[in-house]
Amino acid sequence: MKKLNKVAVLFASAALAAPLASMAAAHGGMAKSVDNWRATDGTVWKNGTNELCWRDAMWTPATAAANCDGAIKPAAAPAPAPAAVIPPAPPRVAPAMPAPAPAPKPAPAPPAPPKPTSEKVTFAADAFFDFDKSTLKPEAKAKMDDLVGKTRGVALEVVIAVGHTDSVGADGYNQKLSTSRANAVKDYLVSKGIEKNRVYTEGKGEAQPVADNKTTEGRAKNRRVEIEVVGTRPVK
What we know:
Strand order of the largest sheet: 1-4-2-3
Structural class: alpha+beta
CATH superfamily of the largest domain: OmpA-like domain
Number of helices: 4
Distance between the termini: 160 Å
CATH architecture of the largest domain: 2-Layer Sandwich
Order of helices and strands: HEHEHEHE
Helix content: 25-40%
Number of domains: 2
Radius of gyration: 76 Å
Number of strands: 4
Strand content: 15-25%
């Protein structure tokens, strides 16, 4: 019986609180309708464990008192989007200059010619004769002895003996005489060790004078044999 009286008192108090809540809303004391039972001081009635709020017949989640069970919680404001981070522009780098082209290598110097191992040598002498003679005079033999001495150590290639005459006498006779004088020189050189097949002889007669045949001195110079020695010798 006591329990029923407590419930009756609770409902009576709720009936009294409803008009008060309506009056408070009419006077602007509340921003919206709250359909939870409130006490005269405006606090929401809760159960004995303070876990649940008392609801009236008009209660909806939209009209529930704040912090009461079933009230619609305001949506949390979205977190501001992070500001876009613009990476710094890369530093401007001057384009690398191309490396200079390597200088062309100088052409290799041509190889030095091989050092000669031998050299050409030439010796000459004149043998003079008496008028209408092909016999060697002592002076002529001395010149040829000197010439043979110079050929030592020389590889002989050829010895040339060319005979001549003055203009006295017939051309045919002088031609034969010039050849005899050249052969006389050859025989002497061979007797001194010169190879016979190296000696070449020729007669020119009176065709190639070197002096004036009108004088005695000139004719004496034209009665001659010109001797030339050609060979090679090692370079020292």
